[in-house]
Amino acid sequence: MAPSFGTSGLRGLVSELSEEVVSDYVHAFLTTVPECDTLYVGRDLRPSSPDIAEIICRVAQGAGLNVVECGALGTPALALASMKAGAAAIMVTGSHIPADRNGLKFYVPQGEISKADEARIGEAYGARRRRTGTTGSLVSLPEAEPLYVKRYVDAFGVGALDGLRIGVYRHSSVARDTMEQILTELGAQVVPLAHSDTFIPVDTEAVDTETRANLMAWSQEHALDAVASTDGDADRPLLTDAAGKVIPGDVLGVLTARVLDAKMVVTPVSSNDMVRRCPEFDHVSLTRIGSPFVIAEMEQASADARCIGFEANGGFLLGFDATVVGPLAALPTRDCMLPILAPLYAAKQQNTSLASLVSALPQCFTAADRLQEIDRAKAAVFLTGLIDDTANRAQFFAPFGSLSDIDLTDGLRVDFESGDVVHLRPSGNAPEFRIYAQSSSEIRAKDLTAQVRHAVAVELAS
Question: Is the distance from CB of 338 to CB of 363 less than 8 angstroms?
């Protein structure tokens, strides 16, 4: 599979991210920001990331840009530093996908690139090169990560989480040390869990059964109030309650929006419908899946709209200058720390538990799963058949209930007369097929996801 753009950045097999391919994509990107003379570069902890980052630095210098090498740090920390400096940035990461794949996330000085930017990069790939006739400088910036730490310590206040015992599942998140430092400075007692020097792909939107069992066991063993973690590049959060039960990312989004007193919410169509049932939000806008679509919609909001965005995977985008205890400047890129800290802070302020905060929300439950290593062409034919053929669609979904409506915003979302929802969508740049379900019962949402996953697997195997 040749490297391609998906919901967030360029991804492909490491074997296909050759020096030539990476170089051509760097040049293509740099032609879209001709006014920018500085490039920030960061990377995650995949074995392939240092070499790819080195190629990017060398190519950008050769193109005349001054390169700021930030080393291993989270994507939101890199974005915060580069946007503050008015510079472009490239993050080397494959996020949550396995280590045999990697990718590039591109940032213009204003933040994440748009789908229009992706199209321009695609047009320039292999055809345009940025040349200035000079060689740029190369410096390191160890201050990038401390700047991100300070952002949240200043916003929530030293001691904000006093008395809480929080486990940090370290796996191979590039932000594991950063997260521990932020939580510690906010007063929490941190318990490090399961450090790994081997890259472990953790998908915060579809946490596997073994990891869920570990989270519950750790919570009990260490008497924790919560376990926190992130995906590989730290733009998606993972947070559990005291029992080790994972709180879905879109639920964290709702809790965080409440803490910030947001009035407008932008979120993909795959997110939990509870957001539309919360009376404190004046407007909820649903988009296609992917942060570029969320950002594009957020940009249409007025300056006083108090607009935020979040995705079902938990990535949170702050579209206005907020205040918690101290100021919290807008950061319209997917971030993991804010939707971890805000619910913990709210529970502490209300002298209650995370589980109680969640139970007080409108009751709507979601579940998600995925089929991996699929035949992408076959999956596309299958989904198109469900979309275009009414009889085929009715027959496939008949075991799960009677259909009442469909939504084609992104993939195929079907509403059943029972109130249940199923959403099917192939990944944009990985051999995966996503299955989402919603119901008024948590058990029903999980069972429905499992049943639909099995039905899709049968179809794709036939």
Answer: no
Token output for 79:
């974005």
Catalytic residue, from 8, 48, 49, 95: name it: 95
pLDDT in tens, 169-188: 999 999 999 999 999 999 99
Number of neighbouring beta carbons within 10 Å of residue 380: 12
Q: What number of CA atoms fall less than 13 Å from residue 415's CA on the CB side?
A: 10
Asked whether 244 and 228 are in contact (CB, 8 A), the reply is no
The single residue listed with the structure tokens 């050759």 is 18
**Global pTM value:** 0.88
Annotated active-site residue 95? The verdict is: yes
Answer yes or no: are the C-beta atoms of 238 and 207 closer than 8 Å.
yes
Tell me which H or E stretch contains 315.
Answer: none
Spatial CA neighbour of 51 closest among 12, 102, 10: 102
The helix or strand, by DSSP H or E, that contains position 357, with its residue range, turns out to be helix 354-359
State pLDDT tens for residues 268-297. 998 999 999 999 999 999 999 888 899 999
Written in H, E and C, the secondary structure of 182-195 is: HHHHCCCEEEEEEE
DSSP 53-65: HHHHHHHHHHTT-
Bigger pLDDT: 131 vs 172: 172
Cα–Cα distance measured from residue 49 to residue 320, given in angstroms and rounded to the nearest whole number: 33
